[in-house]
Every structure is written in structure tokens, then in C-alpha cells.
Amino acid sequence: MAILCRLHTAFGDRYIQAIREALPGEDIREWPDVGNPEDIEIACIFRSPPGFLTPFKNLKLISSTGAGVDTLVLDPEFPRHIPLVRVVDEDFGNRMAEYAATWVMFHHRDLPHFLAAQKESRWAYKTMRSAREVKVGVMGLGQMGAAAAQLLSRIGYDAAGWSRSAKSIEGVTCFSGADGLDAFLARSEIVVNLLPLTDETRGILNAGLFAKMPKGGVVISAGRGAHLVEEDLLAALASGQLRGATLDVFTKEPLPQDHPFWTTPGLFVTPHASSTASLETSVNAFAENVRRYRAGEPLLNVVDLSRGY
Ligand code: NAP
Asked: Is-above-0.85 flag for pTM?
């Protein structure tokens, strides 16, 4: 029985080579050279089009090379009886925390003001509040969100977080559940979205949510594009309800060249580049779960399909 890999292209051929080295003796096939689909017992995939897994009738284990599993779990044809594992790793979360901290500081220290002034050779002095006076809120307190909230707190921000279940994180004021959302938003002038995309969180970044934040707030999103109602963000920036935003994820990626996000004042775009697991992390996580599967041991980082993340 064979392993099918359909991998992130970021690492090129090194990725499949590393998997072959980590799993000697395994029959490893790289998509699209599948051979007989009935041979495939394990799939290692980075996202995949709807129905991609349907032909593999003998699948027993699915491994996502990323953290977000929405493209798999929200696919109506996803084989829900088969365990799905994903990558959870400290360095992966730390990379996201660096992204969140970079953009929180960018907006808090008003770099757009200084960059615009320099373009005009203009000396545009401005006083700054210290981080402890700035209330930042992180939506989602999993491997990405908890790392981000903790780093923001260590930098000195007045950091809060919001999750589904109640949490206790040192230095972070924790809110939870639908009941906790309004109080979380009311105190968070900079909101960082690190939620997974589920039926519950789709469209959560909308006009209603922006209106519950203090006026002149900032939204940073590296969750998924479909969390955001795009026209609501544009309207909130135009009205001044939000003074800034940074987006790493989009409904359509790459972001089309004629999309208004590229040119909206106060809006900053990064190309889904906030955090990627290293090649080593990704390969080791997969190889360890293959070893466990072969040995009949419990798998690591199994996705709860009933929650959708
Ligand atoms: P995770 O470990 O599963 O954590 C998800 C967090 O969101 C948990 O704290 C969870 O609450 C909370 N949550 C889920 N549904 C919620 C709801 N309805 N209301 C309130 N809180 C809710 O996920 P992760 O590994 O941190 O990743 C989060 C997301 O980041 C991924 O799904 C992916 O979309 C995105 N991501 C993006 C990039 C990028 O490059 N842009 C890279 C990696 C990940 P509980 O703790 O109570 O369960």
C-alpha cells in the first residue's frame, strides 16, 4: 500500500526528497503520478480541490501539511470517517506571532504616517502612546493565536484573546464564546484574526463586528479570506470606523490585480506569507504520524471534524 503526496510548491523537489528520506521503504508517489488509486493508503496534502480524495477508496490516514484544514473539512466529499491530522509546532506558531507583532507595531507606531511624510521630505513629528496603553485583541487562541497573544503581551501590549472554550494564558485577558465577544471587541482597538474557517466563523469580520470595536480601530487578518466581508471592510475604512487593516489571506488568491484592496488607503496586503511550517517541521510531523499509524499507536494533532478545526 502506498503514500500519495500532493505538496506545497514552496519547497520544490526538496519536499518530496525529504519525505522519501524520512520514510525509507515506503512506496511514495507524487501527485499526479498516482498509479492505481486503490493502492493509496495514506495521503499527505497541502489543500486540494473538492473531491480530490474521492477516488482513493482504501485511504486510512490523511495528513495536512498546513495548520488550516478548511479546504478539506468543508469539502462535502471529504471522507469524514478517515482520521485527518495537521501540523502543530512551536516554531510554526512563533512565525505567526512575529507577523502579528510586526503589523500591530506598524499600525500602533503609525508607520504609514512616517512613510508618507518621508516621501514628501516632510518632518512630521508625532507623539506615540506606549504599548501598555494600546489594547490588542487576538481572535482564536490556538497554536497561532496563543503564540501571538503571548508575544504581544511580552512586548508590553494590553493583550486579550477570544476563543470558543475558556482559557487561561499568562499576561492575556481571556474572553470566550459568543457571550464574550462583545466585551472583547469593545476593548480591542487592534484586532488580530487567527480563527480557523468554519461554518461558524465564515464572514465574522463584518460591519457589525467593526462597529463594536472602538472607533478608529485596526483589523489584521491572517486566518482565511472568507472570514472577511470585503465590502464591509472597505466601507469601515472609508467611514473612519477603522483607520487601518492588514490582510494576509483572501477569498481569491492570488489577489486579482484589479482588486480594490491593492490601492485602498490604510489597507496593507501580504501574499499569504504570515507563517509556513519549515520543511523539517512539516516532514517530521508527517513521518511521525506514519510511524504511529503503522505501529497502531495514537496519532498526533488529529482534527476534530465535528468542530471543523
Ligand atoms: P487551532 O490551533 O485549531 O486554534 C483555533 C482557535 O480558534 C482555538 O482557540 C479555537 O477555540 C478558536 N475558535 C474556533 N472556532 C471558534 C469560534 N466559533 N468562536 C471562538 N473561537 C473559535 O488553529 P491554529 O493552528 O491556531 O490556526 C488558526 C488558523 O490560522 C488556521 O485555521 C488557518 O486558517 C490560519 N493560518 C494561516 C496561516 C497563513 O499563512 N496565513 C498559517 C497558519 C494558519 P478553542 O481553543 O476553544 O477550541
From this structure: yes
